[in-house]
Amino acid sequence: MDLLHRGKPHFNQLHIKHDEQTGLRAIVALHSLKLGPAIGGCRCIPYSSTDDALRDVVRLAKGMTYKAAISGLPHGGAKSVIMRPPNLPDSGPEREAFFEVFGEFIHSLGGQYLVAEDSGTTPADMNVIRRKTPFVLGSEDGSGDPSPSTAYGVRRGIEAAVKHRLNRDTLEGLHIAIQGLGAVGFSLARDLRAHGARLTVTDVRPALIERAVAELGAEAVAPDAIFAVDADIFAPCALGAVLNDHTINLLKVNIIAGAANNQLAEDRHGRLLMERGILYAPDYAINAGGLINVASEYEGFDADKSRDHQTRIYDTMLHIFERSAVEKLPTSVVADHIVEELLGA
Ligand code: NAD
Fold first, then answer.
1. SS3 for 175?
2. pLDDT at position 5, please?
């Protein structure tokens, strides 16, 4: 794999740790340190091979650089992955020993990398890591669950899209289709409803749909039917790669703005959306509220300051939309250009 010359800016560092005693096999990818110490979560999931783990960590680290830079954070992007051993318990002394060794590994990087939780790791794991290093964010007594901040930032991004495309200052009466009612999606649904939006929702977990119908008066559709809902806005909050040749043909909305990571199946789908007249809110810019919240721990957590920063996602999105209109480029391309200018790439 040609890791050192993939795209711009080039990859910075890869660090690998194998500990015989605990079975820890971990990789840290530092994508860019240009704007400051790099932040990124630690995934602890099963991988079928070291190559798979490497591919995942490299892809994710680059995404973190872009997310931090577009959000105006004084941080670079990184990620770590742990190849989860099949017998790793969910809690207890064996898991603690495992994460202590991982904490030593993080400490050995000297503060260039600030680790946080991600799939397969928990705030309790971050507490264990903290025994060995101060370079950890989002432990149990830290900034807490990032999902409500992510949802808040997405709502601000939706408001910016509505201002730009529909020239409206409120969400009152707008129809929004939400895919995925998990930690972010449900919080977003509740917030949008409180701001007067009408909701159509879906999930693969029927209990979440029932709750949205009962609590928020939402209309429900089957998972496959969400793309064809005749609404103002589609908010993908479930999976990646949901915007592809098939789904883009089905869409009947003016705006796509949601929390999911890597929404475009391929880069060219950003252009296809523009050609179809659909305003796309680039995912890593609109879904950065959780990262902004966790990053604020680095300088001593201040909830008000963090919220102010999340509020400014509105301005970031408006800037991307306006520049896209002037330059006649897809919003996804404009967002990348803004980051690459910031990084001097
Ligand atoms: P989650 O796992 O809590 O929720 C995802 C929901 O999507 C689940 O309820 C799941 O049942 C549902 N789902 C899965 N497949 C579906 C399908 N085919 N159709 C409809 N629903 C489906 O995850 P989350 O934390 O809410 O994150 C949602 C998305 O936002 C993910 O893509 C995540 O990477 C991204 N994101 C999350 C955060 C955060 O702070 N949690 C931050 C940035 C980005």
1. strand
2. 46
Residue nearest atom 43 in ligand 1 by C-alpha distance = 287
Q: Which ligand 1 atom sits nearest the alpha carbon of residue 236?
A: 29
Give Cα 77 to chain centroid, integer Å: 12
Q: What is the DSSP string of 29-71?
A: EEEE-TTSSEEEEEEEE--SSHHHHHHHHHHHHHHHHHHHHHT
pLDDT one-digit tens code per residue, 98-110: 999 999 999 999 9
Between vectors from CA 243 to CA 340 and to CA 188, what angle results, nearest 5°? 85
Cis, peptide link before residue 223, omega less than 30° from 0: no
Mean pLDDT of 289-318: 94
Q: 330 CA to middle of ligand 1, Å?
A: 25
Q: Is 180 in the pocket of ligand 1 (CB under 6 A)?
A: yes
Task: Select from 227, 237, 293 the residue to mutate for testing ligand 1; criterion: most ligand atoms less than 8 Å from CB.
Answer: 237
Instruction: Find out whether the beta carbon of 317 lies less than 6 Å from any atom of ligand 1.
Output: no
pTM: 0.94
Give catalytic residue positions.
79
**pLDDT of 3 strictly over 60:** no
pLDDT in tens, 168-215: 999 999 999 999 999 999 999 999 999 999 999 999 999 999 999 999
237 ligand 1 Cβ < 6 A: yes
Domains and CATH numbers, the chain: 2-68+75-130 (3.40.50.10860), 147-287+315-343 (3.40.50.720)
